[in-house]
Write a structure and sequence with these properties.
The protein is of the alpha+beta class and about 270 residues long. It contains 8 helices and 8 strands. The protein folds into 2 domains: about 1-125, no CATH class; about 130-270, 2-Layer Sandwich (Heat Shock Protein 90), CATH 3.30.565. It has helices spanning about 5, 15-20, 35-50, 75-95, 100-125, 135-145, 165-185, 230-240; strands at about 130, 150-155, 160, 190-200, 205-215, 245-250, 255-260, 265-270. A 5-stranded mixed beta sheet has the order 2-4-5-7-6, with helices on one face. Strands 1-3-8 form a 3-stranded antiparallel beta sheet. Helix 5 crosses helix 7 and helix 6 runs parallel beside helix 7 (about 165-185). The longest helix has 24 residues, at about 75-95. It is globular, with a radius of gyration of 19 Å. It is an enzyme of class 2 (transferase).
């Protein structure tokens, strides 16, 4: 079995495309040089679309009584394949452009691919390929061993995100959490993060306002949040794809971030 067959196993369309791709011409280089963590992160993306037969085209017999058919229709799989390839290509290119060393690039890229894989898993487990905002944020926070209810506090109305909106939001939360681990509230047990969101239905159109507020952080002597790809994602990609306006403020007691965006078909209050 070749390296690519080990990293991207399976017989689905995505696995075939990734095995046939010429990685040597990318900033990642030849697969033989990839670290074990990078191999795992890339493999997870394919694994999530192939787990439990979910990547099979829906044809033939349906699910048995009490066991719904979990297979993804061919059109949905094609959409997932194209989307993941596009996002992965963008992550590789932009991470390479904002990394000073190969080691730094590998570290950042592994974390971002892990975050992308988690979001893809959430979307594929949903019957309508949407992701609950609170669940998305909570799972990303748990990944960093933060204690919800003790160190991190979440609140807000139920909101569903489309798979694409969830990818962007998941990556944004990943960047905020990574920054908090390195420089902010998650550097010690004394720091706190309040993550809350609300609907502004008086606006036209209605808006979702999302807040990430760190407190009890001693930032004296600490490096400020780096204006690399992570915060480019927050400020430009969210604006382009979700029409979001993002405010980032480094205050004496910690980072404050507000993301405001109109409600669209990609961002829907539950029950709307």
């Amino acid at each position: 079995m070749t390296d690519l067959e080990e990293i991207f196993p399976g017989d689905n369309d995505l696995a075939h495309r990734l095995r046939g791709f010429d990685w040597s011409g990318t900033p990642l280089g030849s697969p033989e040089t990839w670290s074990s963590n990078l191999r795992s992160a890339l493999g997870e993306i394919v694994g999530h679309t192939d787990r439990s037969g979910q990547a099979e085209c829906a044809s033939g017999t349906r699910g048995t009584p009490g066991k719904p058919d979990r297979r993804v229709p061919h059109s949905q799989l094609q959409h997932t394949v194209r989307n993941i390839l596009a996002v992965t290509r963008s992550l590789v290119r932009r991470t390479a452009a904002n990394s000073e060393t190969a080691e730094e690039m590998a570290s950042h890229l592994e974390g971002r691919l892990d975050a992308l894989a988690r979001v893809q898993n959430f979307a594929l487990l949903s019957s309508d390929q949407t992701v609950d905002l609170e669940y998305l944020v909570a799972e990303e926070i748990v990944f960093y061993n933060a204690r919800e209810g003790e160190q991190v506090f979440l609140s807000g109305p139920p909101i569903k995100l489309s798979d694409r909106a969830a990818e962007l939001f998941g990556l944004a939360i990943h960047e905020l959490a990574t920054n908090a681990v390195k420089f902010g509230a998650l550097t010690s047990s004394s720091g706190h993060i309040s993550i809350h969101w609300e609907l502004d239905e008086a606006a036209s159109p209605s808006h979702l306002r999302f807040h990430w507020e760190e407190t009890d952080v001693d930032i004296a002597g600490e490096e400020p949040a780096r204006q690399g790809y992570g915060f480019e994602l927050l400020q430009s990609m969210l604006a382009y794809e979700l029409r979001a306006q993002t405010s980032l403020r480094l205050e004496p007691d910690g980072l404050k971030c507000t993301i405001e965006m109109p409600l669209t078909s990609k961002i829907v209050p539950t029950g709307a």
